[in-house]
Amino acid sequence: APHSRGHFRVTLWGAGSRMNAAVRAVTRMGIYVGAKVFLIYEGYEGLVEGGDNIKQANWLSVSNIIQLGGTVIGSARCKAFTTRAGRLRAARNLVEHGITNLCVIGGDGSLTGADIFRSEWGELLEELVQDGQISEEVAQENSRLNIVGLVGSIDNDFCGTDMTIGTDSALHRIMEVIDAITTTAQSHQRTFVLEVMGRHCGYLALVSGLASGADWLFIPESPPEDGWEDLMCERLGETRSRGSRLNIIIIAEGAIDRSGKPISSNYVKDSSKMGMEAVMALLEATPDTPACVVSLSGNQSVRLPLMECVQVTKDVQKAMDEKRFEEAIQLRGRSFENNWNIYKLLAHQKPAQEKSPFSVAILNVGAPAAGMNAAVRSAVRISICQGHTIYAVSDGFEGLAKGQIREVGWHDVAGWLGRGGSMLGTKRTLPKTCMEKIVENVRKFNIQGLLVIGGFEAYEGVLQLVEARGQYEELCIIMCVIPATISNNVPGTDFSLGSDTAVNAAMEANVEHLTDKMKTDIQRGLVLRNEKCHEHYTTEFLYNLYSSEGKGIFDCRINVLGHLQQGGAPTPFDRNYGTKLGVKAVLWMSEKLEESYCKGRVFANSDDSACVIGLRKKVVAFSPVTELKKVTDFEHRLPQEQWWLNLRLMLKMLANYQISLTEYISGKMEHVTRRTLSIEKGF
Questions:
Q1: Rounded to whole angstroms, how far apart are CA atoms 194 and 186?
Q2: Which region, left, alpha or beta, applies to residue 352 given φ > 0 means left and ψ of -120 to 50 means alpha?
Q3: Maximum alpha-carbon separation in the chain
Q4: Whole-number average pLDDT of the chain
Q5: I want to staple 399 with a disulfide (CB 3.0 to 4.6 A). Which of 41, 271, 404, 468 is the partner?
Q6: Rounded Cα–Cα distance for residues 78 and 86 (Å)
Q7: What are phi and psi of 485, to 5 degrees?
Q8: SS3 label, residue 136
Q9: Helix extents (H) in 20-107
């Protein structure tokens, strides 16, 4: 039983941006499992100074902090903790409170300091006994210090995790600035130079460049070739001559040239952005367990040996210092390397080495979803790089039946990255209502590849086309579905395009009212209801129930989000996810087209010639629609199993439901090496 652990204590400190969600989760999970939880204020400085800087927390200590920026427990650099004497004082303060479990939220320096503290713990206690500050008995009771880390760094510069705490928020702020620039600068012919944080890591610059379609990018991992100034000005001039009124240059603050000399934004101008698992890791630690960090890999929580991550992170900096820039990019991990390669591929048009014999059509199907346009843009541009003829189809399968088909070029999709909705237009019509007309136009335009971006109707529609192959030979072509729907209900993927933007839109709903409420001490609750969860428990019924029962105690409000969840501008995640899925889908289709091309025509009727591309745990996978049919609930329009239902246990624990811990599935310990960093990741 979780509440039998009365002796178990955990303490938490953190430094950096957007860490309050982690502080809340660790605190409440610790209390939930029966631990005494202490918050250490002002980081290692508070640990060394002790006193009022170390306070026991209760459930309400972390109420109403999840939406706040920064960290409510403060943070401060501490020279004293870098010394043995400082760490001795810190040990004394922890022993005084009976604390033997430390959860540290911070960057590689903070986490390295924590590991040194852990390695010295036994010696520090011996010294405290010799000095008469603690007894032998107390030393025995506190003989082992467990450490777990959560990585907080907006630079996303820590090896072993897909994204550190704070990175996504930083990317949102950067994209808000870029979107504002794009909106206000349409009437001017200007070049904007935007410098973003990242002294040693170019992640924020790279991903914001990818998400905005920046014209030029400077990151410390890949300095430009000598003479870049002339090439940059020449390329900017080319885009102006094609009618572009706005150029964006993004530069990481640590950008350097090939000789190691800093490149400043001014110089560029003148020349032309997991707390529960942490508690479980502490609970399950043994004397032989190494200090670990809790990381996200895809949508899975994993544990990684702390010092392995720190060592690889240091290896990156060493490679950069020694001007081994290609190795530095590889050490950042496959995802970073993919971002860099895709940015270079899509930023500027490069003529195809030869014209291919293939024609590919792209269409959107179902309701609009943020990220659709990013996927179309990247698919069009990578198709052009491959030498294919590329057609855009308006209004989904209905437009394909009506012949609303036009050939598109590189610049036809310029500026689409940050646009919400569907620039192509989209409808829910399924092929079975107009099959013969669709077949006629597939034949007329000699379409050999069909890329369908959309929700459940996109998947179901391609399945109908595949099942009609026996009747229509023209449908023996390569087909791929990119899932794009706020419902996240397409089989074959853990995440659909648009769902991240939808969740963000839901979080921003009714913000002013909630903010006012959170300034008071009024107890409040939040009921979230799916629109079709129950025939009788409607939103109106719940509102009337709470309003009647809560008179004089609390008020009640309704907010029906509806189509607002489709969002306006896509989030950075959806922009980059859409971009990568578009590229990967077309590369897969190109490979399949080559395989099925014989005697001047494409003939593909195998199961693996029509697939859904999706993110499955850690990696991008292509799943045949005929196989996915076996695991689809067509009545309710969703997969038979949904991974996200497992999040309900976490939700209930953090809402203080009494649930057995035996239901919790702990993250596994994985290792961080150069080989694991080279494994293909999903995004």
A1: 17
A2: beta
A3: 91
A4: 84
A5: 404
A6: 9
A7: -165, 140
A8: helix
A9: 20-32, 43-49, 84-96
Q: Give me the active site residues, please.
A: 155
* pLDDT over 90 at 73, yes or no: no
Of 474, 486, 362, which Cα lies nearest the Cα of 421? Answer: 486
Q: Which of 153, 204, 200, 152 is nearest to 178 (CA)?
A: 204
Q: Which of 444, 457, 443, 373 is nearest to 408 (CA)?
A: 373
pLDDT tens figures, 558-583:
888 777 777 678 998 899 999 999 99
Model confidence at 76: pLDDT above 90: no
Separation in Å, CA 134 to CA 90, 92, 129, 165, 525: 13, 8, 5, 37, 45
The residue written with tokens 């109908």 in the block is: 464
Write out the H or E segment, with its range, that includes residue 175: helix 167-184
SS3 label, residue 613:
strand
- State both tokens at 158: 């820590």
Helices (H), 482-549: 499-508, 511-518, 539-549
Report the distance separating Cα 309 and Cα 314, nearest Å: 9
Reported in sequence order, the residue ranges of 85-126 that DSSP labels E, i.e. its strands, are 101-106
Per-residue pLDDT band at 512 (split at 50, 70, 90): low
Nearest to 361 by CA among 410, 394, 398: 394
As given in the structure block, the two tokens for residue 53 are 């800087």
Cβ atoms of 496 and 487 within 8 Å: the answer is yes
CA dist., res. 540 & res. 636, Å (int): 23
Asked if residue 278 has pLDDT above 70, the reply is no
Instruction: Return the number of other C-beta atoms located less than 10 Å from residue 552's C-beta.
Output: 5
Instruction: Give, in order, the Cα–Cα distances in Å from 268 to each of 216, 224, 285, 480.
Output: 10, 12, 51, 42
Name the strand (E) or helix (H) holding 458.
Answer: helix 456-467
For residue 55, count other CB atoms closer than 10 A to its CB. Answer: 16
3-class DSSP state of 534: coil
Supply φ then ψ for residue 629, to 5 degrees: -55, -35
> What does the radius of gyration of the chain's CA atoms come to, in whole angstroms?
27
Phi first, then psi, for residue 512 (nearest 5°) are -60, -45
Report the distance separating Cα 150 and Cα 289, nearest Å. 17
User: HSE-up of 247 (CA within 13 Å, CB side)?
Assistant: 24
Q: How far apart are the C-alpha atoms of 333 and 309, rounded to whole Å?
A: 12
Task: Give the closest residue to 386 by CA, choosing from 454, 448, 437.
Answer: 448
In total, the chain counts a number of residues equal to 683
Task: Specify burial of residue 519 (Cβ count, 10 A radius: 0-12, 13-18, 19+).
Answer: exposed
Residue 248 pLDDT more than 80? Answer: yes
pTM higher than 0.70: yes
Q: What are phi and psi of 446, to 5 degrees?
A: 55, 45
| Among 490, 495, 528, 493, residue whose Cα is nearest residue 509 | 528
pLDDT confidence of residue 3: 37
Helix (H) or strand (E) holding 111: helix 108-130
Could you give the dihedral angle defined by the CA atoms of residues 257, 262, 268 and 273, in that order, rounded to the nearest 10 degrees? Answer: 100
- CA separation for the pair 10, 40 (Å, rounded): 11
Question: How far does the chain reach from its first CA to its final CA, in angstroms?
Answer: 39
Residue with tokens 């609930």: 633
* Residue 200 buriedness (CB in 10 A; 0-12 / 13-18 / 19+): middle
Helix (H) or strand (E) holding 622: strand 619-624
Instruction: Render pLDDT for 102-154 as a digit per residue (tens, 0 to 9).
Output: 888 887 778 888 889 999 999 999 999 999 999 999 999 999 999 888 877 76
Q: 306 near 292, Cβ under 8 Å?
A: yes
User: Could you tell me which of 348, 341, 174 has the C-alpha nearest to residue 244?
Assistant: 348
Angle CA 52–56–61, to nearest 5: 105
Backbone angles phi, psi at 403, to 5 degrees: 80, 20
